[in-house]
Design goal:
alpha/beta; Isopropylmalate Dehydrogenase; 2 domains; two-stranded antiparallel ribbon; 12 helices; 12 strands; about 40% helix; about 20% strand; globular; binds nicotinamide-adenine-dinucleotide; binds 3-isopropylmalic acid; binds manganese (II) ion; EC 1.1.1.85; manganese; metal-binding; 3-isopropylmalate dehydrogenase; Isopropylmalate_DH
């Protein structure tokens, strides 16, 4: 039966890298149908809303969502609910994709592209499990007047224990399937939200005697990630810390243009997107690295369509293309977005 993939390409380099990911999906020979819909700044321009209801309906109806990126400096002054970013936050919440998996592994041949020493970078094979539906992102927020009469901005950070439990379970399960190590990252020395997080995760350890659980404060975790990233197997953390640590992890393996992600709901339905944004500084120039989008498409096949073999083929093709010297500008090379995808396609 034909599987329907909703393609929400969005802004900036979103459409450029998503087009290449679609090309790679088509090359698998699987029975896939693609339907596009506007989102982000593109959605706002066309309909006055960053997440048009028809786009959300398509995302719900589809077997999986392939997402590009949203964000456009042109819209940064709009009220928050109309900005492009409202689309991605809205769709994550509406689809209840609470579990964001962000793997980072060094590709052979990219030791020189990492911001770290080759022998340090070479040890990287980690998975960041980022909570995606809660935290300070979704708490009450606004502007008010402080007691001293100053304009004040505020954003409430909170997690309830059910939210922590369900994401921690994803982290424990992932560790169980990998090398058996789970590191929970929080800021429990300062934040009550984090204290609750740590209490809940600690209490769950008894259900996973085969997983070695450790805790780090987020500041230390950021430091350890560049000091000795090979120590990490699975990292589980909240929405904000996971956002920051995953961009950091990307440079440890060479480029933000390499890291894919899967955002899954409780039933395995998902949205798939690179961890990077719309990159306005290089948009429209055919320079963006499409690998993060292509690897996101591989995750889509594996997690939402049960096509693990095709996913393996795509991932192996990306690895071979890179090992063979294919490089976009972010990796110190000269290939265009399309030429990089061509190199991957040749290896499939
Ligand atoms: P960004 O990730 O878009 O770009 C950061 C830097 O990395 C830029 O120098 C960019 O050129 C480079 N880069 C990113 N992706 C690349 C790729 N595939 N190949 C080569 N280089 C790449 O982050 P930013 O500049 O902070 O944000 C730009 C816009 O994107 C903002 O509006 C932001 O809100 C939005 N954003 C969206 C998402 C998303 O849709 N998931 C994620 C992050 C940022
Ligand atoms: C990401 C992005 C988003 C986030 C923004 C654009 C809302 O940075 O997907 O990593 O913070 O989650
Ligand atoms: Mn981010």
């Amino acid at each position: 039966m034909t599987k329907l993939i909703a393609v929400l390409a969005g802004d900036g380099i979103g459409p450029e890298v998503t087009a290449e990911a679609v090309r790679v999906l088509q090359a698998t020979g699987l029975d896939l149908a693609f339907e596009e819909a506007p989102v982000g700044g593109q959605g706002y321009r066309q309909t006055g809303r960053p997440l048009p209801p028809e786009t959300l309906a398509l995302a719900r109806r589809a077997d999986a969502v392939l997402f590009g990126a949203v964000g456009d400096p042109e819209f940064d002054a709009l009220e928050r609910r109309l900005r492009p970013e409202a689309a991605i936050l809205g769709i994550r919440r509406e689809m209840a994709t609470f579990a964001n998996l962000r793997p980072a592994k060094l590709f052979k041949g990219l030791e020189d592209a990492s911001a770290l020493r080759p022998e340090v970078a070479g040890a990287i094979d980690l998975l960041i499990v980022r909570e995606l539906n809660g935290d300070v992102y979704f708490g009450e927020k606004g502007f008010r007047t402080s007691p001293a009469g100053h304009r004040q901005g505020y954003d409430v950070m909170s997690y309830d224990e059910a939210e922590v439990r369900r994401i921690a379970a994803v982290g424990f399960d992932a560790a169980r399937r990998r090398r058996g190590k789970l590191c929970s990252v929080d800021k429990a020395n300062v934040l009550e939200t984090s204290q609750l997080w740590r209490d809940v995760v600690s209490a769950m350890a008894a259900e996973y005697p085969d997983v070695e659980l450790t805790h780090l404060y987020v500041d230390n975790a950021a430091m350890q990630l560049v000091r000795d990233p090979g120590q990490f197997d699975v990292i589980v953390t909240g929405n904000l810390f996971g956002d920051i640590l995953s961009d950091q992890a990307s440079m440890c393996v060479g480029s933000i243009g390499l890291l894919p992600s899967a955002s899954l709901d409780a039933n395995g339905k998902g949205m798939y997107e690179p961890i990077h944004g719309s990159a306005p500084d290089i948009a429209g120039q055919g320079k963006a690295n499409p690998c993060a989008a292509i690897l996101s498409a591989a995750m889509l096949l594996r997690f939402s369509l049960g096509e693990g073999e095709a996913a393996d083929r795509i991932e192996a093709a990306v690895a071979r293309a890179i090992a063979g010297g294919a490089r976009t500008g972010d990796l110190g090379g000269t290939l265009s977005t399309t030429a990089m995808a061509d190199a991957v396609l040749r290896e499939m």
